[in-house]
Amino acid sequence: MKFGREREQTHKAAPLPEQAALVSLVTPHGERIPARVLERDQGAVLVAIMVPLDSLGGVALESLMLEFVGPQGRVRLGGTIGVVSPAEPDVLRIADPRSVEVLQQREFVRVQSARPVLVYTPADQFEVQSYTVDVSGGGMLLAGPETLRMGEELRFRLTLTQGEAPVTGTGKVVRIDPQGRRAVAFRELSDADQRRVVQFVFECQRAERRRGLDMGDRYGS
Which tens digits make up the pLDDT trace of 135-149? Predict the structure, then answer.
């Protein structure tokens, strides 16, 4: 009995995402559905799906996992998942969340995509045209400009889709790779623009997956 009590006392509750945090619902095929945390406590997590989806059936719900980035890395949680109300099918409740996996990886899912970006730095006071190498919900990798220094803060206008208003915000140069490309972490971004970036990444992933399936069908794999 003593050892049983010791095990219970040392048992740690599953790490949970912060309220309003961006998270993903991961399908068995690896598809990530972006969502945002509405409420959370040790008994349950309430999330809202951020992109339009067909209604999720019971089988699909049972197979989903909640994924988020925490201090210990990328965490995946399992639990009993259900729709909160038929009137709000995009709001899900994960009851009795339990830690399934902790990956030592602290970056958002990113996709390779060349998108035009206008960069403004306080030092230069003029705009510089660049483009992204990849994009994620937490930042972007820029092909330049070479004038950007490590730790420098900047303003940007990122065009995700031609003909639509650009995503605007501020960022900070957090890494310069051997090719001279600048990794910029988002600092200030409106909720609406954050959702646009997340949905852009999600749609790019779906397009890549469709291309992979088409190539598989073409070559009989």
Answer: 988 899 999 888 888
